[in-house]
Structure formats: C-alpha cells, structure tokens
Specification:
Belongs to the UPF0113 family. This is UPF0113 protein AF_0058. InterPro entries: NIP7_N, PUA, PUA-like_sf, PUA_sf, UPF0113_PUA. Residues 87-161 form the PUA domain. With 174 residues, this protein is of the alpha+beta class. The chain has two domains: 3-82, Roll (Nuclear Transport Factor 2, Chain: A); 89-173, PUA domain (Archaeosine Trna-guanine Transglycosylase, Chain: A, domain 4, Roll), CATH 2.30.130.10. The protein is built from six helices and eleven strands. A six-stranded mixed beta sheet has the order 7-11-10-9-6-8. A five-stranded antiparallel beta sheet has the order 1-2-3-4-5. The longest helix is centred in the first third of the chain and has 13 residues, at 8-20. The radius of gyration is 17 Å and the shape is elongated.
Length: 174
C-alpha cells in the first residue's frame, strides 16, 4: 500500500481532533500521510522526510498517530506525541499505574486527579509525570469520582503500553 496525502474530509476530521486536544500546531511542524488498507492509518513525518517519500515508496514511514474514518482515533504513539492539554485525562498513583500496565482497569482509589469528562468518554490514563500510559473508557463522569467507593472501577482499560508484552488484546479494542 502506498502512502498518500489526506483528502479534504480526512484532513478536516484530523484537524478537529488535533485542535480539541491542544495540538493544532502539529501540522505546522509535521506532514501527514495516509496508508490505506483495512483501515486508514495516519502517520506523522518530518517535512524533510515528506519530500522524499514519493521517490522511496516505503512500507512504513514516520510515527503512526492514529486512524481516520468518520472520526479520528489516536494510537498509543499518537497520544504520547500529540496530547498537549489536560482534556479527558485521569492521573493515577503508582499502584494504579502498575495495575493498568498489567492490563487491569482503574479503580476510584487509584485516581489522584481527573480532568472534566462524562460517563462513557474516551480518557487518557497518565502517571504522575504526565506520561500517557494508555487509553480507557470512563464508567462514571469525573464529577462522580469523589462519591465512588475506592474499589469501584472508574476507567475500563482499552489499551495500554504494556500491551506489546502481553499479546492478549488487539489495538482494535477502541
């Protein structure tokens, strides 16, 4: 599959997602390429590399930042690279971090703080250093956190950075 530039509709969807998460300036520093196959994978490459990709026709180039369709879905690499604001984030303590990286869900007692989001929202799970550990789905709104018992699941693990070691789930889970 060859790389191509995103079409107008795809670019609009990608720009909207980048802007929502505070990375609107990403496109001024990097170029986007779409690799169409079973899914439309979006890759970010440097402007210098972008100039020679057409001549090389590589199988892979740059960093996969997500997939585009009716909406843009960040990849784990994309979240680490692109998220610049605190929107839809949950910060966990060390124990919560360890359990999440082992594939477990986040319990209310492991959450140190959370930005504002609703129930069933896609959230980005972070450690105390602001590293994105993975992507989850909230079972409750952030407003309900203080009223939940510590042993209640607050965020369901969809995919995490420990995934490549376990090989149990696929990245298609979200």
């Amino acid at each position: 599959m060859a790389f191509r530039q995103p079409n107008t509709k795809e670019l609009k969807v990608i720009r909207k997602a980048l802007s929502y998460y505070g990375s609107g300036d990403f496109l001024s520093h990097y170029a986007l390429l779409v690799k169409e196959g079973e899914k439309k994978e979006v890759y970010g490459v440097s402007k210098e590399l972008y100039g020679v990709i057409g001549e090389l026709n590589p199988h892979y180039a740059g960093v996969k930042i997500g997939e585009v369709g009716r909406r843009f879905r960040f990849s784990l690499e994309g979240t680490f690279w692109l998220l610049r604001n605190s929107r839809n984030r949950v910060w966990v303590n060390e124990r919560g971090e360890m359990l999440f990286l082992y594939g477990r869900d986040i319990f209310a007692g492991s959450v140190e703080r959370a930005s504002e989001f609703g129930e069933n929202s896609i959230v980005f799970v972070c450690n105390r250093f602001d590293d994105v550990l993975g992507i989850g789905r909230s079972r409750h709104s952030s407003d309900e956190l203080s009223n939940l018992p510590e042993d209640k699941v607050f965020v369901e693990n969809l995919v995490d950075r420990g995934e490549y070691l376990r090989h149990q789930k696929t990245y298609l889970s979200f």
